[in-house]
Specification:
The chain is of the alpha+beta class. The protein has three domains: 4-79, 2-Layer Sandwich (Uridine Diphospho-n-acetylenolpyruvylglucosamine Reductase, domain 2); 84-235, 2-Layer Sandwich (Uridine Diphospho-n-acetylenolpyruvylglucosamine Reductase, domain 3); 253-345, Uridine Diphospho-n-acetylenolpyruvylglucosamine Reductase, domain 1. The chain contains nine helices and 19 strands. Strands 6-7-12-10-11 form a five-stranded antiparallel sheet. Strands 1-2-5-3 form a four-stranded mixed sheet, with no helix packed on it. It is globular and about 60 Å long.
């Protein structure tokens, strides 16, 4: 991969009209009236200047966590910045500064190949590096924030570059300061710095991971990476065949009192303990409401994994949104739990 500093050739930004169908994993037809491909760090001053002419902007990574409307009149910025460099290191840790447009899974594999460890459990999560802090991506007992050091971003409100650290980002379960209402599309993430380990310490405590692993002592980081890739490939439909954004809803977190009340009514409820709280399987809730294989228009709930909403053809954003809303209202009525969606509606 290129060094970040190599990507500094000066050129002029162009604004175009573009169909985003092949830039979102749901495969939705979406016409952006004003689209910019942002792939050069030297374009930052011009990008800031252009952004001031629009009331709203939307940053697009790999389009793996968005539901795009048919027409978008905001400024759409496709972040394609590339590059990776060693920011600093010591005996135990390596700090990698990674451009926001790099694909997340490429970085996971690259880090393992270079003997930098920690990201193995986050294998094959779709999306870009710049999108990872927005969602605080996570899987199999590991979250992005566990290895986050800092990020560099443009604050559109004042047109300045800002460095943000762990406490600034207010990470929580699939959430961050960037998803707060007042901050939506306020920041354009340019690069992320991760703090990885130079020695291999596996994290194999997640219940859904344990059953796939027989001999923990003999596993390498690459072995864990490949195991998780295989699990995800079997579990999730290929978005190139049926468009999807992966898990559409977060697993809701409830307290012990609520759990006991639900357990009395639904003794087969699937939960994962988390300190003094319980994380309920959203997939189980949806399946119990009878949504497997159900559809609105060409938007379907996957017939094997209830957390996945798929596009079986020419689904529109409204089909996806209406199906998701029907799921939310039914789950709320049956269980008293309001499911929170993961993707952003644009």
């Amino acid at each position: 991969m290129d060094n970040l500093s190599n990507n500094l050739n000066i050129h002029k930004i162009s604004i175009n009209k573009k169909n985003l169908r092949f830039l979102n994993t749901l495969g939705l037809n979406s016409i952006a009236e004003s689209y910019i491909n942002f792939d050069n760090f030297s374009d930052i001053p011009e990008l800031i200047k252009i952004s001031k002419n629009f009331s709203k902007i939307f940053c697009l990574g790999s389009g793996s966590n968005v539901v795009l409307s048919e027409y978008i009149y905001d400024l759409v910025i496709k972040v394609n910045l590339k590059g990776i460099e060693i920011y600093k290191e010591n005996h135990e840790d390596i700090f990698l500064k990674i451009a926001a447009g790099e694909l997340w899974n490429d970085i996971v594999f690259w880090s393992i190949s270079n003997r930098y460890y920690g990201l193995e459990n986050l294998a094959l999560i779709p999306g870009t590096v710049g999108a990872a802090p927005i969602q605080n991506i996570g899987a199999y007992g590991v979250e992005f924030c566990d290895y986050f050091h800092s990020l560099l971003a443009i604050d559109i409100f004042n047109g300045k570059l800002v460095n943000m650290y762990l406490n600034d980002c207010k990470f929580s379960y699939r959430n961050s300061i960037f998803k707060l209402k007042n901050n939506l599309n306020r920041f354009i993430v340019l690069s992320v710095t991760l703090k990885l380990k130079k020695y291999w310490v596996p994290n194999l405590n997640h219940n859904n991971l344990k059953k796939y692993i027989k001999n923990q002592k003999s596993l390498s980081a690459l072995d864990v990476y490949e195991i998780i890739c295989n699990i995800r490939n079997k579990k999730l439909p290929n978005y190139k065949i049926y468009g999807n954004v992966g898990s559409f809803f977060k697993n809701p977190i409830i307290d012990q009192i609520t759990y006991k009340q639900l357990f009395l009514k639904f003794p087969d409820i699937v939960v994962y303990t988390q300190n003094d709280f319980y994380k309920v399987s959203a997939g189980w809730l949806i399946e119990k409401c009878g949504f497997l294989g159900k559809n609105i228009g060409n938007a379907y709930v996957d017939d094997k994994h209830a957390l996945i909403i798929i596009n079986k053809g020419n689904a529109k954003a409204i089909d996806i949104i209406n199906l998701a809303s029907a799921i939310q209202s039914t789950v709320l009525s049956k269980f008293g739990i309001l499911l929170e969606k993961e993707p952003v509606y644009v």
